[in-house]
Amino acid sequence: MIDRRSLLMAVPAMMAAGQARAASQNAHAFSFDGIEGGVIRLADFRGRLVMVVNTASRCGFTRQYAGLQQLWTRYKDRGLTIIGVPANDFAGQEPGSNEEIMGFCSSTFGVSFPLAAKTSVIGEGAHPFYRWAARERPADAPRWNFHKYLIGRDGRIAAVFPTSTEPTDPRVMTAIERALVAPPGTV
Questions:
Q1: Residues 6+ away with beta carbon under 8 Å from 62
Q2: How many CB atoms lie within 10 A of CB 9?
Q3: What 8-state DSSP symbol labels residue 165?
Q4: Which residue stretches of the chain are H helix?
Q5: How confident is the prediction along the chain (187 residues), in pLDDT tens digits per residue?
Q6: Among 90, 91, 118, which Cα is nearest to 104's?
Q7: ∠ CA(90), CA(96), CA(98), 5° rounding?
Q8: Which sequence positions are flagged as catalytic?
Q9: Per the count of CB atoms within 10 A, which of 28, 46, 83, 131 is most buried?
Q10: What is the 8-class DSSP label of residue 162?
Q11: 168 CB contacts (<8 Å, ≥6 apart)?
Q12: What is the set of domains in the chain, with CATH numbers?
């Protein structure tokens, strides 16, 4: 049996170990269920840039799917992966099933980049990636659909772009270009 004093001494050490583990965590620690099944593991994209974007099919910004597809087409062979994360968190603008979302994205915008299964990006039920990102960059948490996190090749957040920033905005393109040529771990 463990005595009380030993337990009191062990608790701070366990807490410190947990905090150290959380501090060393990066985006590569997370995965999403894929919209068509399977798992999208961010660790599989180690060494590449990853843009994670929460999306919605009935939003005033839904046309950004076209810009995301343009980015994917332009940069996928140079080291960028885009992952769309359908979410119904903002005004119920993604009410469809995974099948409906996939059909809409494919037929309306020709989306060929990976899509996660519908998930939550804010609040208590937020996906672990989004909880991590909110801890890393509290001022940059999603406030609406089409919020963009650019994850560097090292798994850290390299840039964040709010909903109003189009995927093909020069600031986004510059951040991608800069991160593609920078040595890993420097952006």
A1: 55, 56, 145
A2: 10
A3: S
A4: 4-24, 64-75, 98-109, 128-136, 170-181
A5: 555 555 445 544 444 444 334 445 899 999 999 999 999 999 999 999 999 999 999 999 999 999 999 999 999 999 999 999 999 999 999 999 999 999 999 999 999 999 999 999 999 999 999 999 999 999 999 999 999 999 999 999 999 999 999 999 999 999 999 999 987 666 5
A6: 118
A7: 110
A8: 59
A9: 83
A10: -
A11: 67, 70, 71
A12: 27-181 (3.40.30.10)
The answer to whether the CB of 35 falls within 8 A of the CB of 98 is: yes
| 138-143 long-range Cβ contacts below 8 angstroms, 24+ apart | 142/54, 142/89
- The residue behind tokens 């009410």 is 95
Cα–Cα distance for residue pair 5/144, rounded to 1 Å? 49
Q: Which DSSP helix (H) or strand (E) runs through 150?
A: strand 148-151
State how far the Cα of 43 lies from the Cα of 133, in Å rounded to an integer.
16
Which residue is it, tokens 């701070």? 12
In this structure, the dihedral spanned by the alpha carbons of residues 131, 134, 136 and 140, taken in order and rounded to 10 degrees, is: 160
Residue carrying structure tokens 């076209």: 66
Look-up of token digits 């937020």: 126
Amino acid identity, residue 38? Answer: G
Amino acid at 98: N
